[in-house]
Amino acid sequence: MLLTTPMTMMDFFRKSEGVWFSQRTVHRFDSAGDESGESNLIIKVLDSDDPRVVQICQEQGVDPTLASGGASFQWQGNLSEKEPDPNYEAILVDIPHPQNSHTGKFLRNKGYVEGIPVIGAYRFADSGVLTIETEYERNQGQEKCWFVTDDFRVRVSTVKIVNGVNLMTYCSERRCISPSFLEELMEKNRLRASAM
After folding, report:
1. 156 neighbors 143 (Cβ within 8 angstroms)
2. Is the residue at 157 inside a domain?
3. 117 confidence band (pLDDT: 50, 70, 90)
4. Are 95 and 104 in contact, with CB atoms under 8 Å apart?
5. Which residues, at least 6 apart from 55, have a Cβ–Cβ distance to it below 8 Å?
6. Assigned domain for 2 exists
7. Element (H, E) at 111
8. In 3-state terms, what secondary structure has residue 87?
9. Is 173 a member of any domain?
10. Cβ 145 vs Cβ 155: under 8 Å
């Protein structure tokens, strides 16, 4: 059950913080064919004074005082036991609209489609669906993301090149249970079993 619908980017980041099991399907409209995969998505919220947030603002010519904060996104193989590779990390910085916190821009140190710094625009619909529009040098990306429950979310995206849609992606993401939460559940079950 979805308890609260995030309507600002920082609320969205906070609700997304943690580790997610992501199942992805990609449909390509060229000869590369379709693909699917599974990975872990690790999201951490960053304060507005985090050095990475300040650095990205400065590198993209934006006053760091306009940033409300940010988030780091790391991807790793689902069964990998290694630490996440920093080459598979992106930092997003939230620059909310001063009169309407449901819209704004975000700075990203590297884009999803092209590995270059980008500035995207976002908006939240009344339903809570987040739409992100990103202009790259050669492509346009649109992503929609929403929470179905507090622990399950969906992302769909399209990438358009000059002559039309190049690929579409569907991701379903389920929050992973932390070891401490799992231990807490097991302890409750042990206590309940011993009381019988």
Report:
1. yes
2. yes
3. confident
4. yes
5. none
6. no
7. none
8. helix
9. yes
10. yes
186 CB-near residues (< 8 Å, 6+ apart): none
Residues in the chain, overall count: 196
State which residues form the domain around 149: 9-195
Predicted confidence at residue 184, as pLDDT, reads 80
The model's confidence at residue 29, banded by pLDDT at 50, 70 and 90, is confident
**Given pLDDT bands bounded at 50, 70 and 90, which one contains residue 105?**
very high
Number of separate domains in the chain: 1
- Chain centroid to CA 128: 15
CATH number where 94 lies: 2.40.128.20
* Other residues' Cβ atoms within 10 Å of the Cβ of residue 36: 10
Backbone angles phi, psi at 193, to 5 degrees: -65, -35
Does residue 132 form part of some domain?
A: yes
Tokens describing residue 67: 């940033």
- Whether 115 shows a pLDDT value over 70: the answer reads no
Q: Is the pLDDT of residue 87 over 60?
A: yes
Residue 113 has pLDDT above 90, yes or no: no
The answer to whether residues 143 and 170 touch, using CB atoms and an 8 Å cutoff, is no
